Amino acid sequence: MTKLNKLLFDGTMFIRDYMREIESTDQLPKDNLDQILMGLFGEVGSIMAAAKKHVREDKAYARYQQALEEEFGDVLWYFTTLCQRLGTGIDSIFSDVSMQEKYNKCVAASGLLDGPISHISSASQSPALNEALLKLGEAMTALLSIKELNKNTQDSLFRFADHYLQALQVAKMSFSKIVRMNIEKTHGRFLKQIEADLPTFDSGFPDEEKLPDQFKIEIIQRKNRQSYMRWNGVFIGSPLTDSIPDPDGYRFHDVFHLAYASILHWSPTFRSLIKQKRKSDPEVDEAEDGGRAIVIEEGLTAWIFSSYAKHLNFFEGHDRVSFDLLKTVSQFVQGYEVEHCPLSLWEKAILRGYSVFRKVRSNNGGIVIGNRKDRTIEYRSINRSK
Mean pLDDT for the chain? Predict the structure, then answer.
């Protein structure tokens, strides 16, 4: 088990370990607090927005718990990076806060082999959630004028941490779970991934049930503007049109499935097209390679195309995609094997896929070359290949 996996699965986690783990994910300017403060302000607002939405929609807000966990984690990330820039640590701040008289303290048996005793602190009087969040917002406002570390700054940080812990308690959030989720999220989004740690999904299956390690797919547009794919001289799939009054090139969207297959090592759609589903395991065949998984992939692909790509010139000139887009992607595929792919790998699949798509669209066809070993996808013109 890797060090990170140990941190993610142990029930208890030291705050200083969290500080160390997220330090490498901090890519914001080190000499300017403005973006940190604006980010912190925005994430506190997101917690309030989620709570307001829950009151308005009640049980209809299905992702309330998950949304709060994520937003509390984002607040913690920004608060940690703010304290680091000011030369102090959140571990000492939280420790001082929890020592106040208004916090009840008790001793518990620890799950750590080298630390048999844990000290647990909880606020003796908890306000209602709305009141707790409003006080957190007030404490956040006091931080906006911070420029350097001094006595007033220390008091403001202390007060914010106090109201953060109280809000966690009132919202019945597991602090340990929030910390672990935030590490996993930020590592997956911002850090370069180790190839050996990336999922492959079909490595234990027979060769005839694996996605090909390398493939060349020829995409051809005929005079009727229908797009066809050909693999090893055989046409696969159905002819496609844009299926929209104003043509936009979606007839070439199979490029994205090829990008998923080569970079994510996942594409139930491509598996179905080349008839290499994992039938030796009936459960995998049904749940991961079946119709519902294909619909998920097709729906996700169409949503990215219509909601983002068309409005951003199909990501031309972009070296990253929106974090909001990536978070929605992770929600889309939740429950399927591909949810284990880090967000940075999804970003690569989307950007590289659209890079090839733009060339296919511009040339009304071409050859798409996928390499799963290198997790790459490339374009080659049909004329050049002859």
Answer: 91
Confidence of residue 192 (pLDDT cuts 50, 70, 90): confident
Residue 173, pLDDT > 60, answer: yes
User: How many CA atoms are closer than 13 Å to the CA of 102, on its beta-carbon side?
Assistant: 9
Give the strand pairing for 365-371 and 376-380: antiparallel
Is pLDDT at 115 greater than 60 in this prediction? yes
Instruction: Copy the structure tokens of residue 363.
Output: 């040339």
Tens digit of each residue's pLDDT (9 = 90 or more) over 308-333: 999 999 999 999 999 999 999 999 99
Instruction: Compute the CA torsion angle 2, 4, 9, 11 (nearest 10 deg).
Output: 130
Q: For residue 41, what are its two tokens?
A: 């302000």
Extract the tokens encoding 321: 């995609």
Strands of the chain, DSSP E: 103-112, 115-123, 214-221, 227-231, 234-240, 365-371, 376-380
The CA radius of gyration of the chain, in Å to the nearest whole number, is 25
Please name the amino acid found at residue 107. Answer: V
CA geometry: angle at 220 spanning 214 and 226, to 5°? Answer: 130
Q: How far apart are the first and last CA of the chain?
A: 49
In the predicted model, is pLDDT for residue 1 greater than 70? no
Q: What are phi and psi of 240, to 5 degrees?
A: -120, 145
Burial class (CB in 10 A: 0-12, 13-18, 19+), 89: middle
DSSP SS3 for 108: strand
Q: Please write down the HEC assignment for all residues of 121-161.
A: EEECCCCCHHHHHHHHHHHHHHHCCCCCCCHHHHHHHHHHH
The predicted structure's pLDDT at residue 128: 87
Residue 240's nearest CA partner among 305, 286, 330 is 305
| Whole-angstrom distance, CA of residue 8 vs CA of residue 12 | 9
Place of tokens 């589903």: 277
DSSP string, 247-269: --SGGGTHHHHHHIIIIIS--HH
Task: Say how far apart CA 137 and CA 44 lie, in whole Å.
Answer: 7
pLDDT at residue 108, rounded to an integer: 80
Confidence label for 2 from pLDDT (cuts 50, 70 and 90): very low
- Look up residue 327 and give its amino acid: K
Kindly report the pTM of this predicted structure: 0.82
